[in-house]
C-alpha cells in the first residue's frame, strides 16, 4: 500500500477527534441535533486549524443514515463513501484552481437538481477568497436563496478578501490557532498509535515551530519520525525544524550578561553557518526572553513556557536579569524582526540587535554593592533608634515647597486629519474595519497584538480610519511604530487601497468628536463667513501664536 502522510492518515473523522475549536464543534452539534442547520456557512481561520476537516465531518453528519445525531456514525454506507470521496452529493470545489465565472456557473446549474443518494447536497468551496469578482456576483443570488436540499460551506484563510455581501449571507465560524498543548496531545496519540517512543521536549519543539497549525505539526512530526530510529529524540526535531536547543539560549544569554561580544558573535556565526535562519533565530530569542519574564513573575507558569524547560540553569539565568532588561531585549528584537522582513542582510540586523542588548546591560561594581549594603545597615540602625527615642514636643514644622514638575510630553494626535476622516466617514467603511480588525491583529506577534488592548475603530472614511485607545501609553507606542501600522493596514485594505491609520486616546477623542459636531452644527445653521472665521480664531492653536508673535505675523491656512 502507498505510504500516506500523517496529516492524511490521522485527519479527524468526527467532531470528537478534532483538536480545539470547541466553540465551532458545540454550535454545529447543537444545530444538527435540533435540525436547525442553515444553508450557508463560512469557515475562516489560519491554515491547518481544521476548516476542511470540520466541513467534511459536518457533511457526513448531515447525510448520515442515523441522523439526526451530533456525530456521524462512520459505519453506514453514506459516511464511508463520503470519507473515501466517492459520494456524489458532497462536492469539493477548489476555488484556487477554478476561480473563473464559468466554473461557478456549472455549480449553479447543478444546484437545482435534487441529491441522488443523500438528504442534502453539500458544496465545500475551499480557498473561496480566490474567486474572481464575476464569480462572486454569479454565486451571490444562489447563495442567498438556494433550494432546501443544498448546503454551502465556504472555507478561507483570508476572510477580509470576501465581499461583504457574501459574508452577510453565511453563518461565520472563526477557527483559532491551536495551543501547543493541544498539538502535543494529538502528536502523542499518533506516536502511541505507531508504537514509537518519544521525548516530550521534542514534541514541544515541533509544536512551537508549527505556530498553531495542526497540519504543519503533523508534517514536521512525519519528517522527524522518518529521520529517527527507535525513539524520537530532541536532537532529531531540532535538525528537522531548524530550531535551536535550550543550551544555545542559555549560552547566548550568559554572553549578553557578561558583555562577552566576541563569544556572542562567534556563537551567532556558528548558528548561521549550520543553516539557521536569522529571522527564525530572532523570533526564538524573543520567545526565550519572554519565558524568562514568566519565570520571574511566577514559577507556577511553567505550562506557558514555549522554548524552555524549567531547570536550575534556566532559573539562574532568569535571576541575572532585571525585568527592565528583558523588556528592553524583547523590544529591540521585535523592532529588528520587523526591519529584517524587508532586507536580504538579516544576519547584520541580528548582530546589531545583540550589540544593542549588550550595551544596555548595566555594569554593577562589587564596591558599589558593598557600599549599598553598608548604607542599608546604617538606615536600619537609624530606624531602630528613631523608634526607641521619646516623642518630641509638637512643633509646627515648616511647610515644604515641592518643586513643580515640568509638563510631561504627551502624544499629540493629528486632529486635522481625524476631523477630515469624520467629515468623509461612512458606516459601511466602519463596519468593514470592525468586522476584520480581529483577524488583522491576529497576524501580529503576541507582544505587538497586546499593544492594541481595549482598542476600538470609531470612524472610517474611504482613505483612512481612526483607532481609539483607552490607554495613552499604548496609543503613543502604536502611533510611533510605522511597521505595525503598515502591517495592520495592509490586512484591512478596502475600496482598492490600503487605508491610513490615525490613533487617538479616548479622552482626546471625546473632545475632538464634540468639537466636530459643534462645528458641523454651526455650518448647518448657515453662518456667515465672518462668523466661521471668528470661531476658528478662537481656537487655542490660533490664539496662542497670535499672543506670542502678533496678528500681523500669523496667517491661518485650512489643512
UniProtKB/TrEMBL annotation:
Keywords: ATP-binding, DNA replication, DNA-directed DNA polymerase, Metal-binding, Nucleotide-binding, Nucleotidyltransferase, Transferase, Zinc
GO molecular function terms attached to this record: ATP binding; DNA binding; DNA-directed DNA polymerase activity; metal ion binding
TM segment ranges: none
Record flagged with keyword Transmembrane helix: no
Pfam families in the cross-refs: DNA_pol3_delta2, DNA_pol3_gamma3, DNAX_ATPase_lid
Any one of the GO BP annotations: DNA-templated DNA replication
Protein name: DNA-directed DNA polymerase
Amino acid at each position: 500500500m502507498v505510504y500516506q502522510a500523517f496529516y492524511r492518515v490521522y485527519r479527524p473523522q468526527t467532531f470528537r477527534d478534532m483538536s480545539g475549536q470547541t466553540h465551532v464543534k458545540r454550535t454545529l452539534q447543537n444545530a444538527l441535533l435540533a435540525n436547525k442547520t442553515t444553508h450557508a456557512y463560512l469557515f475562516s481561520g489560519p491554515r491547518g486549524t481544521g476548516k476542511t476537516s470540520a466541513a467534511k465531518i459536518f457533511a457526513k453528519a448531515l447525510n448520515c443514515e442515523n441522523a439526526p445525531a451530533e456525530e456521524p456514525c462512520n459505519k453506514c454506507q453514506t459516511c464511508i463513501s463520503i470519507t473515501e470521496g466517492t459520494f456524489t452529493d458532497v462536492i469539493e470545489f477548489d476555488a484556487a484552481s477554478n476561480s473563473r465565472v464559468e466554473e461557478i456557473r456549472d455549480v449553479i446549474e447543478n444546484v437545482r437538481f435534487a441529491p441522488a443518494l443523500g438528504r442534502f447536497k453539500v458544496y465545500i468551496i475551499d480557498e473561496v477568497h480566490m474567486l474572481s469578482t464575476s464569480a462572486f456576483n454569479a454565486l451571490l443570488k444562489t447563495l442567498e436563496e438556494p433550494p432546501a436540499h443544498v448546503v454551502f460551506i465556504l472555507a478561507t484563510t483570508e476572510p477580509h478578501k470576501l465581499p461583504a455581501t457574501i459574508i452577510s449571507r453565511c453563518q461565520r465560524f472563526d477557527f483559532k490557532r491551536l495551543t501547543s498543548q493541544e498539538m502535543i496531545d494529538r502528536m502523542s496519540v499518533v506516536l502511541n498509535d505507531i508504537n514509537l517512543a518519544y521525548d516530550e521536549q521534542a514534541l514541544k519543539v515541533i509544536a512551537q515551530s508549527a505556530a498553531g497549525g495542526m497540519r504543519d505539526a503533523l508534517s514536521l512530526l512525519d519528517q522527524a519520525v522518518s529521520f529517527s530510529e527507535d525513539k524520537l529524540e530532541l536532537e532529531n526535531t531540532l535538525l528537522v525544524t531548524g530550531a535551536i536547543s535550550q543550551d544555545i539560549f542559555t549560552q547566548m544569554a550568559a554572553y549578553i550578561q557578561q558583555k562577552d561580544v566576541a563569544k556572542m558573535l562567534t556563537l551567532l556565526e556558528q548558528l548561521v553557518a549550520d543553516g539557521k535562519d536569522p529571522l527564525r533565530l530572532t523570533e526564538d530569542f524573543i520567545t526565550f526572553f519572554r519565558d524568562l519574564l514568566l519565570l520571574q513573575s511566577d514559577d507556577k507558569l511553567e505550562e506557558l513556557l514555549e522554548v524552555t524547560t524549567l531547570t536550575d540553569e534556566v532559573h539562574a539565568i532568569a535571576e541575572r536579569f532585571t525585568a527592565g532588561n528583558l523588556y528592553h531585549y524583547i523590544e529591540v528584537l521585535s523592532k529588528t524582526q520587523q526591519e529584517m522582513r524587508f532586507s536580504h542582510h538579516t544576519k547584520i540586523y541580528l548582530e546589531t540587535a545583540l550589540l544593542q542588548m549588550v550595551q544596555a546591560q548595566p555594569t554593577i561594581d562589587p564596591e558599589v554593592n558593598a557600599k549599598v549594603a553598608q548604607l542599608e545597615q546604617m538606615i536600619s540602625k537609624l530606624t531602630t533608634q528613631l523608634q526607641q527615642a521619646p516623642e518630641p514636643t509638637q512643633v509646627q514644622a515648616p511647610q515644604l515647597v515641592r518643586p513643580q514638575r515640568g509638563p510631561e510630553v504627551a502624544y499629540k494626535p493629528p486632529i486635522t486629519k481625524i476631523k477630515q476622516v469624520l467629515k468623509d466617514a461612512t458606516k459601511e467603511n466602519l463596519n468593514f474595519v470592525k468586522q476584520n480588525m480581529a483577524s488583522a491583529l491576529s497576524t501580529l506577534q503576541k507582544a505587538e497584538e497586546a499593544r492594541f488592548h481595549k482598542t476600538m475603530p470609531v470612524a472610517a472614511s474611504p482613505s483612512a480610519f481612526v483607532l481609539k485607545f483607552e490607554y495613552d501609553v499604548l496609543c503613543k507606542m502604536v502611533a510611533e511604530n510605522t511597521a505595525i501600522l503598515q502591517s495592520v493596514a495592509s490586512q484591512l485594505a478596502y475600496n482598492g487601497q490600503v487605508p491610513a491609520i490615525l490613533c487617538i486616546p479616548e479622552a482626546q477623542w471625546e473632545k475632538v468628536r464634540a468639537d466636530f459636531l459643534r462645528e458641523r452644527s454651526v455650518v448647518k445653521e448657515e453662518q456667515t463667513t465672518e462668523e466661521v472665521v471668528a470661531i476658528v480664531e478662537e481656537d487655542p492653536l490660533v490664539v496662542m501664536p497670535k499672543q506670542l508673535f502678533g496678528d500681523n505675523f500669523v496667517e491661518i491656512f485650512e489643512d
